[in-house]
Amino acid sequence: MSNLFVVRHGQASFFAENYDQLSPIGQEQARLLGEYWSQRKVTFDQVFTGPCVRHTETARIVGQAFRDRGLTWAEPVVLAGLDEYEAEAVLKQALPELVTKHPHIRELHAAMDRATDRAEKLKTFQRVYEVVIDMWAHGELDLPRVESWSAFCRRMHDALSHIAAAGGSGRQVAAFSSGGPVGVCMQRALGISHRHTLQLAWMVRNGAFSEFLFSGERFTLSRFNAFPHLDAADLLTYR
Q1: What is the pLDDT of residues 210-220, one digit of tens each?
Q2: What pTM, to 2 d.p., does this model score?
Q3: What's the half-sphere exposure (Cβ side, CA atoms, 13 Å) at 24?
Q4: Which of 59, 70, 89, 138 has minimal CB crowding within 10 Å?
């Protein structure tokens, strides 16, 4: 059996012009994960990342903690299949019409616009986000220019199959990605529905890791959403 540690990236720059970069908190989350693993000599034979800056930067900062202790850190391999689903495109294309047609979405959207502080804006955004993404995942939105939820899941399963076939048994592998791909890992391990996959994906904290055992077609959950390295309240983030 081999071990796969799937890491959600550190906090990105939500509400900034460029979301796809780590915030100072995200950088600290990644640094602490690298220190936690390297202090315990949890080493990896292979490292994979998704293609986003927030993925590769999280892996780079974790790897630097290993190098600072004189430990080996494998050169990360970028896998396009580990990318997140296109949430921003779904919201951008679907929201204008949904706000017009659905009173409850219009009300949620208005509450988000009225929010005056970051915490309230995040909370109200999440409510809108969950409703719209759930509709999209269940085929209720016609968005031909956006990768479908089913296509995203297939892409992610293909990436996991690639990782499983990329070496022999008894390996330790790290993969740096986003919340959605972590949810699909749970789907693969537990055979859960699309809705439960999304619900688990939305629970994953920035900088947390989930651990899976794999061999051939076997893919088993060992730990989900672990964050023993994050011991301060301001480091426990979802966005």
Answers
A1: 999 999 889 99
A2: 0.93
A3: 1
A4: 70
